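Now for one record:
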Amino acid sequence: MGKVKTYIGLSKLLVEIRVMLHVFIYITGLLFKGEVRLSKYFRVLRRLLFFLSKMKHNKYVKIGKDIKMNLYVPAYPSKAFFYACRKMLEFENKLPCITVLVSVTSACKYKCSHCYQKYDIGKDTDIDILIETIKKMQQMGIAFFNIEGGEPFLVYDKLLKVCRAIDNRSEIIINTTGDGVTLDRLKELRSLGNVTALMFSLHSDTAEGLNTFTGNSKAWENMTNAISAAHKAGIGVTFNSCLQKESFSDGAFEKIMDVAKNFNAALIQLIKPKPAGGWLNGGVRLFSDNDVKILKEKVNAYNKLRKYKDYPFVYSQLMEEETEMFGCTAGGTDRFYLNAKGDVQPCEFLNISFGNIHSENFNTIYSRMRETFQIPGDCWLCEQCAQDIHKIFNDSKADSLPLNKQLSEQIYKNWKRGEEPDFYKRTRNI
C-alpha cells in the first residue's frame, strides 16, 4: 500500500462538503424509493449532519480508496458507510447499533498481563452457530465488524468463513498480533472487498518492550512481518495502544507515534487502561483531570497541527466516551462484544454476560441487553463495576469470566449509568 493520505484544514473541509452532498443525495434517493417518509426526511438529514459534526475534531485518513473519519464508522464512500447512515432512519425505538467486536477464538501464544480475556476459559463457539449469528447481526444493521481472537490467524479457516459471511454492507477490521499472518492469506481476505485493515497492538516503541509486554520473544518480529505483508496485499495498517497515564508526559506517547508513522499506519487507537480480565483486581492507574487534559492536548495536536499531518489519525477512546460526545456506547447502544465461547457482553472490558448463543437465541439475548441499556449513559461501567465483578467472581468460585447470566444480573440490576450523553440526547430530540 502506498503512502497514507491524511486530511486536515482545507482538504478536510472539502471532504466534509463532499460527504454532506453525497449523504443528501443518498437520503433523497431513499425518499423517492419510499424508504423515508417526507415528514421524517429533513429530520434524518439533520440527524446525519449532527452525527458528522461530532467527527470534525478528528483527522481524516484515506485507506485504499476510502476515507476513515472515525474508527468505528465505516469508511466513506463505501456501501458500509451508507448502511451505517440508515441508523438515523429509526424514530420509534432506540437507535440501532452499528458496531460489534467478535472473537473467533481464544487461542493465543501471547501472555499479556492485562488481557481482558485472561479468565475467559471455555470452548470456542461452533462455527455454524457463529456464522448464523454473524448474519443476524448484519441484518439488524451492524455496519462495522471488528474481528479478533485470541489470535484469529491461528484459526485462519474459521476467520475466512466468518469474513465471507459478511457482505459489503459492512466493513471489517481484523485485530491480530501478526502470528499466523501470511501474504497469501491477506490477499485472499483482500479479495473479499470489505476487509479494510489489520489492527496490531503497539504498547511499546521497542522490540524488547513489546516482547516483554506480550510475554512472547517473537512479538515484534511477528508484527513487523505482518505489517510488511499487509502493505504488499493492499490492506491498511492500524494500531491500538494501551498506555498508562505517565506515557503522555514522559515522551512515550511521542515515541509510539513515531513508530506508527514509520510503519505507514493510517490510524492508532488509544485504549484507556481498563480494570478487566488480568487487571480486574488492580494494575490500572486512574487518570486525574490533569492527566486527561495532557492527553487531549497531545491528541488534538497530532490530529490538527500541520507539523503532524503525516502522522496517523489518533482515535482516543477516553475523548470519545466523554459526556459531550458519545459517552459509553456499550450494550448495543452503538457497540457490543461477542466473546470466543459465545457470551454476549456489553463490552469487551465489562466482564458480564447477558447470555450465551449456544443455549439461547441471539436475538433474545440481544434484546435483553438492549433493554438494560435503553437509555445511553456516560458512566465508565468497566471502572465502576470492576470491584463488584471481582468479588462475585471470587465468592461464587466461578471458573471463568465473564460472570454468567444469573451472576451478571447482580451487577446490572441496580447500577447507575450516569447522564445521557450529548449525542444521543440531542439526536433523540431532532
Notes: The two ends are 41 Å apart (CA to CA). The mean pLDDT is 95. Residues 123 and 152 are 15 Å apart (CA to CA). The first strand starts at residue 5 and ends at 7.
